[in-house]
Amino acid sequence: VKISDEKLADEYNLGELPKLVYYRHQIPIIYENELTREEDVLEWLVQNKSTGDEDDVIEDVTSKTLGTLIGSIDNLVVLFYDNDDEDSMQVLEELEK
Fold it and tell me: Which domain of life is it from (predicted)?
């Protein structure tokens, strides 16, 4: 999923955007490296993924929906991004390919 809500990003103490967060059993794991290095991101996701065959879909959600997803899905990756930030939009474009 993806979300562009700076207040929510502040609430989650994410710092500078864009930030990729993987939720496993409701526990956030923040990707701290360069988001444009696709192989590194993929390796990080594989290392943190548990079993499951869920579809890989990126959808835009509200903060309320995000809370519901975190509470009901064991494995969830969230891209917090800023619509006005060039790096955020570049990462989003690459991930949606």
Answer: Eukaryota
Residue pLDDT, tens place only, 84-94 = 999 999 988 88
Contact 36, 91 (CB under 8 A): yes
Between CA 60 and CA 67, with CA 62 as vertex, the angle to 5 degrees is 115
How far is Cα 44 from Cα 7, in angstroms, rounded to an integer?
Answer: 26
Burial of residue 29 (CB within 10 Å: 0-12, 13-18, 19+) is middle
pLDDT tens digits, one per residue of 32-85: 999 999 899 988 888 887 545 455 556 788 888 888 888 878 888 888 999 899
pTM here is: 0.56
Measured between alpha carbons, how far is residue 38 from residues 17, 46, 63 in Å?
A: 17, 12, 27
